[in-house]
Amino acid sequence: MTSLTPHPSGTERKVLDPRAPSTGSRGAELLDPSVVKRSDQWWMCLAGQSHGYGSTDIYTATLPPKAALSVAGWTLTRDAAGELKPLASRSSSGRWDGKGGRHCPSYVKGWDPNKAKWVERIYYAGAAENLWGPYTIGFLEWNGEQWFDQPQPVFIANDEWEHGSVYEPNLVYHDGKWKMWYVAGSNHADYLVQGYAESEDGRTGWSKHEVFAPPEMKMFDFCVRQRSDAFDAIFARVWVGGGTAPPVTGLWWCRARRPSGKLLDWSEPIQIMTAEDRGWHSGPWKPSFQFDEQIAERALVFFDGSYRTSDPGPFPFAFTLGCLEINLPILPVNEEGYREAARHPGCEAAE
Q: What are the chain's domains?
């Protein structure tokens, strides 16, 4: 898949780096952002390791109340001793996310027909035994005072093409459905398929697991946001194989009238960021974005990155969190979608 439009230009800035004291990380590797405004405050949940080892957990960072969305000014939530404070305990979920940890959070607010009320949830991938999976997907839920965990996951791999592992959930609630895009497969096996499913309560009764993007696209994360009367999506295309990453590696942007579970209903994607090595990151993934409340075309796209270190051992890399500040025009959309499969190599397999 290639873009027919020149890349928009944006500004990349570092937000968190475990080896940069100025970022306030204090040695912690925190990434996998999910950015949302709750009440009058911008809020970000992150996954990571507070001391660089052990099972990962979910943490938070905030901007000051009533502050505008920005790249700078985020404060990590810490306890009285200055330690990073996990968002929730594992009193119920330890069986399925205890040893391998919690990964790739995604905040969403939606209607729970069983409780007959709106609920806030943070979906995430949990690993029972190993940091590298296999994974299942569950959530934390806000009860008005705190986030609480669940005794079992709500979404598991059940089709052969999912290879026994589902992770990287991204959700929106729209038209009475909890709609989820997710990754199936394994980074280590270089097999990544973007899937899609939906549910009326976000817990049970999931629709048939559909292939949203085939493995050759290496789509990793599909973050969706509503803007006016249409929807924008930013996704990553990654490279986990050997050698130099191909030019299509990076972040891509597209639009649609509705948050469709069919890739062909979305506009022809435009690449907005490449895998160029910036020193503090290369090959971005896990985008989470929001639009400026005053300037409708201005987007802040938070993303994961990494860079090589001189440390000995099997994994000489440090994880970072960055932000791309970019203008994304409000392009027109139509009811039927933009494209035909012939214009979009590889998409035929996603239908």
A: 10-350 (2.115.10.20)
